[in-house]
Inverse folding.
């Protein structure tokens, strides 16, 4: 008898869960590179800053104070404050509210390398139904598969230029299946650790857990 496969309810993305996007405007990777401290760039090092800023009525931030800066003395604090006060906008923040904002400078930018987003915040993901429809359904096919895409982040957090970086097992059709779903993925304009996403690259890991149709129906 033909053994059809279907995704069970356990099918899930190996990525951060989707959350509502907070930032409506944010610096791009190119804009962060433009203010990258020269001392840090010369040394090829990255940095991290935590700011506390006051929210304005229009969602912008001003009066930012530097709570922490690592490493110190290379100018990351001043650069982060400039970026936030000129480029960052948010919704859902009351006027006058003090808001802590982390900003992370990737050493990739200092070296002029391709900028990779470490911890993207997903604002849109394919549904389980989308994955069920895309999964290859072949007799005797694999029960588990993993696929990782590498994509460019465009304005608004949409993805483009995606390619399959990992497909296990290879050649079973899962790579092309997820590649076709790439338009359904979207990231927030800032990552969880405070990195700009637009202009960077993001990894999209997906896991398929499959069961025979008869088992999935139980």
């Amino acid at each position: 008898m033909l053994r059809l496969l279907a995704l069970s309810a356990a099918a899930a993305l190996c990525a951060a869960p989707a959350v509502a996007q907070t930032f409506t405007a944010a610096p791009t990777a190119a804009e962060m590179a433009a203010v990258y401290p020269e001392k840090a760039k010369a040394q090829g090092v990255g940095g991290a800053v935590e700011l506390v800023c006051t929210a304005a009525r229009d969602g912008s931030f001003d009066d930012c104070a530097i709570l922490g800066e690592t490493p110190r003395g290379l100018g990351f604090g001043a650069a982060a404050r400039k970026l936030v006060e000129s480029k960052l906008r948010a919704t859902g923040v009351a006027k006058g509210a003090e808001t802590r904002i982390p900003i992370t400078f990737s050493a990739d930018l200092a070296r002029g390398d391709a900028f990779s987003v470490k911890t993207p915040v997903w604002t849109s993901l394919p549904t389980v139904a989308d994955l069920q429809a895309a999964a290859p359904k072949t007799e005797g096919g694999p029960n588990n598969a993993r696929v990782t895409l590498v994509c460019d982040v465009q304005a608004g957090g949409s993805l483009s230029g995606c390619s399959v970086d990992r497909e296990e097992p290879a050649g079973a059709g899962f790579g092309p299946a997820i590649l076709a779903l790439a338009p359904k993925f979207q990231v927030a304009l800032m990552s969880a650790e405070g990195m700009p996403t637009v202009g960077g690259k993001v990894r999209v890991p997906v896991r398929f857990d499959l069961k025979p149709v008869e088992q999935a129906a139980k």
Notes: The longest strand covers residues 201-212.
